[in-house]
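As a warm-up, study this chain.
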Amino acid sequence: MSNTAADPGLAVIVLAAGQGTRMKSALPKVLHRIGGRPLVGHVLDTAHRLAPASILVVVRHERDLVAEAVLAAAPDALVVDQDEVPGTGRAVEIALAQLDAFDGDILVLSGDVPLLDGDALSALVAEHRDSGAAVTVMSANVDDATGYGRIIRGSAGDLERIVEQKDATEDEASVSEINVGVYVFRAGALREHLAIVGTANAQGEKYLTDVVGLLYQAHLPMAVSTAPDAAAALGVNDRAQLAEAARILNARTVRRWQLEGATILDPATTWIDVDAKLAPDVTILPNTHILGATVIETGAIVGPDTSLVDCEIGEGATVRRADATLAVIGAGASVGPFAYLRPGTVLAVDGKIGTFVETKNSTIGEGSKVPHLSYVGDTTIGRGVNLGAGAITANYDDLAKHRTEIGDEVHSGSHNVFVAPVRIGDGAKTGAGAVIRKDVPAGALALSVAPQRNIEGWVEKNRPGTGAADVAARARSAQKADDGS
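Now compare it with the structure written out below.
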């Protein structure tokens, strides 16, 4: 939320009712995500930065899904349902009905234009007010205008009307200046002229753009404001445009953190969601994804080949070639390479989760180490613990999950299985290969060792003709000869 002073003379209407058929998706277009947020979430965040008196969002296709996302992003927004009459004009008309006492400026945004920032929209509103226009239309000049409405100007260069792609003549379709779907209207002029817009067009819809032509016929002043960044002003209509919007947003985000003091070695392969936070002197190595609300503190090194989702990384920690979700990694701790931290993992200060280790819903105490080839689930580990290679906390008995508790300064042997629920006391030790089914008292050594039994000649008898049998026979013969000498 911006600290901008409230603007009681501004209301924002966000159009989010369309299906977005070119996305070829069951998910409504405005709910496709870039930078960790749905498209409409970015639009609402920008709208909030303008501090308007009201934000209204018009919905229809998959109404409940879109409304849920809208209210999650902007709890103070008013969700307005579009009726059976199609078109952007009808959508705005229904929203205006909720603002019947409002007589300021109406900023109309599209829920699929996520890259316009607050500065660009603030400048648009200011330009509209300075000009005294009944409407100010944002335009952009593009090389390929296919699919967009065209800005049609008169002989003096003034705005006359906007023509949709399907209604354009050959000459009109050749125009490269497009309507990006962002407008500022004076509320009174919009109400009066929107009421007489019809649906006599190629799509049988009530176009908001027809209001522009009516305002021209009424000799009311109109203005066009060229977007400062054409790429940022364009909407997302298909998966290719979605990917391009994601790339542009990510480049902005990476640059912002670089200017804040983070070292990002390869911006092209580093993806950072807009809600993530990086402290100064963080180092991000190539092929790293920092997603969700992840926070990385000063001096931490993350990557390469690492994915963090909603994680907290402490000062000076190192995370290499790891995948972590909803995990907390303490200051000076070390994770990876090839570690998998599932939700609920808490690694304390100076702890270690090493190579090929999976953890879940577990707390690993200060200075404790799970170095390699282990699974630790539903476990509490104390301070100064070292688990040997291949440690497994067997937390599931086919009916329920159970916890393992390992006290301070416990050292376990290799290939231990801790069958939960079980507690290992402070300072205890376990032998290699032990299966721990019972609690181990503090300072005890736990063993589960069966006497070793060697069956002489087993390979030659049971695997005759194999290479193993041949070399075993030769070795046995050589040993007999040595014994005889």
